[in-house]
Amino acid sequence: xxxxxxxxxxxxxxCPACMREAAVxxxxxxxxxxGARSVRQARTAFGGRISTVPVVTYVLIxxxxxxxxxxxxxPAIVDRFEMLGAxxxxxxxxxxxxxxxxxxxxxxxxxxxxxxYRMLTGAFLHLPPTEGTFGILHIVMNMVSLWNLGRVVxxxxxxxxxxxxxxxxxxxGSVLVxxxxxxxxxxxxSGAIFGLGAAYYVMARRxxxxxxxxxxxxxxxxxxxxxxxxxxxxxxxxxGLLAGGVVTLAYAYAPRDSRRALVQGAVCAGLLVLLxxxxxxxxxxxxxxxx
Length: 291
Hints:
Oligomer: single chain
CATH topology of the largest domain: Rhomboid-like fold
Strand order of the largest sheet: 6-5-7
Structural class: mainly alpha
Shape: elongated
Order of helices and strands: EEEEHHHEEEHHHHHHH
CATH class of the largest domain: Mainly Alpha
Number of strands: 7
C-alpha cells in the first residue's frame, strides 16, 4: 500500500494500517515501542512499582489456605513442617523435649537436625480445627488480618519489597522462637502479620498520616502481643514485629535518589545474614548441650 504519511518521530514513511496516533501527528510501531521503553515507571513513595492489584497478598492467602487444606487431609504435615527448634522423636512415634545426650533409639528433629525449612514453612501452617485455644479461628483471624493489612502495605511498597518484608518478618519470628523457646513447636502467619503491622505504622509516620487511628491500631496490636504471651507464641509475634520494623525503616528513610534501592536491599540482606548467623549459632549450641 502506498503511503504519504511520515512518522513524526523518525520521519520514515508509515502505512496507514500500522500508524499510531500521537499527541501531534502519527508515529510508527517501532517508535511507539521505543517511547514506551523510555517512559519512566511511576513509583510509590518507598520506591516500589505502583500496582492496583495486591497480587502477592492474594498468593500468600492462597498458600496459607492450601496448606491448611493439606493439614486436614494429612495431619502429619503439622509435625513435619511446623517451626521447631529442637526436639526428640521417640521409638514409639512420640515427640519429646530436647536433650543433647539422648538414648540411641531417640532421634533429633527440628532445626537442630538441619531442618531449616521449618523456619519458613511453619509460617504457612495453622492450628487444626479442634486443637489449641483458637482452633479454626487461628487461620481465619490471621487471613483477615493479612487481607486488611497486606493490601495497604503492598500498595505502598510494591510487590518485591512487600514480599521481602513478609518473609523476613516470618523468619525473624522463627529466629526469636529458636533463641528463646527452641523446644516449643509453633505455627501460624502471626509473626509475618506483626511485621506488616510494624510496616503500617512506620509508613504512616513517614507519609505524615493522621496518627490517631494508626496509634489506636498499634495499641491494639501491642495489647494482643501481651495477651498472646499466655495463649500463643509471643516470641514469634515479637520477632516478626522487630524484623518488620527494621525492614520498613530502611524502606522509608533510605535516600530518595539512585542509591535508594541499594540501601534498601543492603539492609534486607544484612538482616537476613544476622538472622542466619543467630540461628546457626543457636542450633550449634543446642547440639553441643550449651543451648
